[in-house]
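User: I'm putting together a teaching handout on how multi-component assemblies are represented. Below are the sequence lines for each component of a complex, exactly as they appear in our records. Could you produce the 3D structure of the whole assembly as structure tokens, so the students can see both representations side by side? Please keep the chain order the same as the input.
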Amino acid sequence: MSVVRVAYIGCGAVVERSHLPALLGVENATPTVLIDLNRSQLELLKQTYGVDNIGTSIDEFLDEFDLAVIATPSASHYALGKQLLSQGKHVLMEKPLASNYEQAKELVELSDRSQKVLAVSLVRRFLPHFQLFKSLLESSVIGQVVKFEVEEGGVFNWPVQSASFYNHSKSGGGVLIDNGAHLLDALLWWLGDFKNAQYLDDAQGGVEADCHLDLTLSSGAQGTVTMSRLRNLRNEISVYGELGSLSMSLASGDIRLKPHNSRVVLGGQALAEGVATTPSVLSLFEQQYRGVVDAISNNLNEESSIVLANECLPSIRLIDACYRERSNLDSLRW
Amino acid sequence: MSNKSRVCVLGAGGAIGSQLVRHLLSKGYQVTTVVRRLSSAVRIGRYDINIVQADLLECSTEKLVDILDDHCALIDCTYSTDSDYDTRISQSTHLANLICDAAEKANVERLIHLGTISVYPVNAGDVSEETICIPRGDAYADAKLAAEKVMLSRPTKIRSVVVLQLPVVYGPFMMWTTAPVQQMLGATYTMPDDLRGRCTPIYVDDVATAVALALEINKTGAEKILLSGPEALNWGDFYREFSKLSEDLKLNFVSRDQLNKLVEQGERQARPLNALKEKFSNDGDFRQLVLAQFGIRTVYRWLKRRRGQEGMDVIKARIANQIDTPSDLAVRLISQHTIHTYDTMPAIRSDKASRLLGFNAEISFADGVKQCGDWLRWARILK
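Assistant: Of course. Below is the structure of the complete assembly, with chains in the same order as your input.
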């Protein structure tokens, strides 16, 4: 198979820390184009990865790549995705797929029509504990799910490189769209689509740092989701079913199963078959690139690690609904 | 919009800066903020404001003039944190000169610099703005003094320069709230029963009120103004009030003789941890030893997204910190450095803030600590 040539549009922290180092481990893909507005960042990455084609616009390099990785502020995802799919390129979009549901749906339709791969970088789905959690829920080990609680938050320390991160019209939002793209995607992947949501956050013209959702799922299960960039939360999901409860630490991956009427809990770490350790973030990205290459060469199989764009539409619809119907949180006093 | 309402806050990502931005917005000001790291802007990023990333230590006067263009006032909440004494003093002086230069060139009318009571001599007893300050060998205090000196003594075109000297400031996100609580959490914080210094804690919202009043000061020229909270306490009272927030906060007062005995006992108990530190420094089975001693959850919490050498440095720093303050012991002893600080902190005798600004702190310590309790529970620091 020929080598997939990869263009990076937006070369901020996630590309520098995760995408480019991971691509080094993939034999049949290579970086060929780097696009960013920050020249010094481009020069640094050019030297590190030996990529000659660098610039501030992708238009002059259209013959130099097969797959575009879009990692710009999320407000530009839709326009760039639309342009590149129309130009016959495959696209791996950093999360979120788009700023709203309509745009996301349009991109999915466009990828269907153009027969090009449109994947979303939702690498958490490849974590062994995320996969085992799904398998356990599907096995009905805790019976019909009745209730759930999810909390994820920590004092923010991501090396943000542009102030547009705090501009709602450019970033698409704050902690809800940033963390929620992962967390809500996983939640709906585990528990099924949602029916309705009540949403509160602390944004006052900027982007929210703390938010809370009361959620009812199509299955009838009800629960809460809390996310924060300001405080250290439990970083845990607990799901309560008719037969017992299942909880998981989002950080360590510890899973606990507690049957009703039992005073004993089954707990432990999820590991991929034949592997003794939890995969690193880089190995998840590497896995993802292999999955995208599989998809491009029509070799997708059940083992391929890829999240195709249509799979994340429910979480985009949820995030969209939240921003449309938001209320103020009372934590605004600080 | 008239520039009369445009204010620039330098160091707006800090705990005081963030609260100040919130207060100024509520007063109708249009606020531009400058932060060194964009990751620190999460709180202020909730508002519709202009956020500029700039490391002022590497910033030209021209760039800062551009940022300040068409602003009526500049509020400086910055300070150097360099670990080297001389570097810190020179950075602090450089920053103050840069800020004054840029403010003059940008025709800023008002400059407010947040100073500290720490510039006053140790064991000074009661201090006022007339008390003479000289360097005392402490990097934080002397660097702040160097900055104040520049701000107050430079001939300037700026209509009014106000240095607000702050005592202990407490409130949400403030070190003077999280530190005492964390000291009393998980072990009994043990301190002498006869600490001699005074404490005039001011709630962060009162600081924001004072800054807003300083923006409207009629007097021209340079002034330094001491702020204080509504009460002068001793340090035992300061800790006692926080300890009321939760049964999980444990506090004990002992005589200095008893404390010395506990220190000796603590050193004996810390020896195994020190031996572990030796082993860590030889690397070898570093990872296994760290995991065995502290557990994967704790290590993960330390590391978050930091990897490689940065991650290793974090682990080593955390271990060193745990060993220096043996937090796994049931008793957590106050450090000698802290005793010295609390023994020598002066009391404030000044009504200048009231006379010049019309400022009198309104939030009583008991009420302020109650509000901190709400925040501490929200932040999950307390149950």
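A couple of points students might notice: The two ends of chain A are 56 Å apart (CA to CA). The mean pLDDT of chain A is 94.
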